[in-house]
Amino acid sequence: MLKVEHLQVAYGRVQTLWDITFEVPQSEIVALIGANGAGKTTTLKTLSALLKPSAGAMTLDGESLIGCSSMQIVERGMVHVPEGRRLFPEMTVLDNLLMGAYSTGKGRRRERLDQVYAIFPILKERGRQMAGTLSGGEQQMAAIGRGLMAEPRLLMLDEPTLGLAPLVVEEMFGVVRQINRAGVTVLLVEQNTQHALSLADHGYVLEAGRVVLSGTGSELLANEDVRKAYLGL
């Protein structure tokens, strides 16, 4: 579905991605793991056209993403839920959700809302509440819900459990699994390596802007280097 080949990205004169190659097959969950600064968020920002690659190729269903705008990428079915939620705190939860539906036909918005509420019932209860007053877990639900309003075929999630309580972390990974089982392909960036690889069909380990290991989620969980570097085992 998504193929990234030899991707290179620089912030000015500082190169951050040197040679990133990976694939996200349709209907799978693929995890990108690695330490802070490894290039995971930069990869997602580049896929979303927030950053421009200096070399390499990115294709979705065989068609190049190079030169596409962020809006065009969303219209093609690839949606990015950024790290830090990035909600509009002084807007209601409902209005935040509707902000994600700008590329969705008006006739479909009610249906999409109902689907989001089926996954996150609390958002329906909080619909008229200001988003900035939600708990951390509820804000993350709203951010994912906003992404789902755009009817993604591929959902890119950047650190969806960052800063959440352990029980909410478990709930959030359950939501990711539920979204995937509903037919949405998922590209997951997550520092909770144990959970991410347990959930993922495939995973890639990034270090200093390069892919250094890849395999199925279970293979990477069993890899001694991964266990020492990211699991503390």
Give a description of the structure.
The chain is an alpha/beta fold. It has two domains: 1-77 and 154-233, P-loop containing nucleotide triphosphate hydrolases (Rossmann fold, 3-Layer(aba) Sandwich); 87-151, no CATH class. It has ten helices and ten strands. It has helices at 40-47, 70-75, 93-99, 106-119, 121-125, 136-148, 166-181, 193-199, 217-222, 224-230, and strands spanning 2-11, 14-24, 29-33, 55-60, 63-64, 78-81, 154-158, 185-189, 202-207, 210-216. Strand 9 and strand 10 form a beta hairpin. Helix 3 (93-99) runs parallel beside helix 6 (136-148). It is globular. The two termini are 34 Å apart. The model has no long low-confidence stretch (mean pLDDT 92).
Set out the fold topology:
Elements (H helix, E strand, L loop, with lengths): L1 E10 L2 E11 L4 E5 L6 H8 L7 E6 L2 E2 L5 H6 L2 E4 L11 H7 L6 H14 L1 H5 L10 H13 L5 E5 L7 H16 L3 E5 L3 H7 L2 E6 L2 E7 H6 L1 H7 L3
Parallel strand pairs: 3-8, 3-9, 6-7, 7-8
Antiparallel strand pairs: 1-2, 1-4, 4-5, 9-10
Helix pairs in contact: 3-6
The share of residues in helices is 25-40%
H/E topology pattern:
EEEHEEHEHHHHEHEHEEHH
Any idea what the radius of gyration is?
17 Å
Instruction: Quote the CATH topology of the largest domain.
Output: Rossmann fold
- Proportion in β-strands: 25-35%
- At CATH level 2, the architecture of the largest domain is 3-Layer(aba) Sandwich
> Kindly, what is the distance between the CA atoms of the first and last residues, rounded to a whole number of angstroms?
34 Å
- Overall mean pLDDT score? 92
Structural classification: alpha/beta
Q: Could you tell me the number of beta strands? A: 10
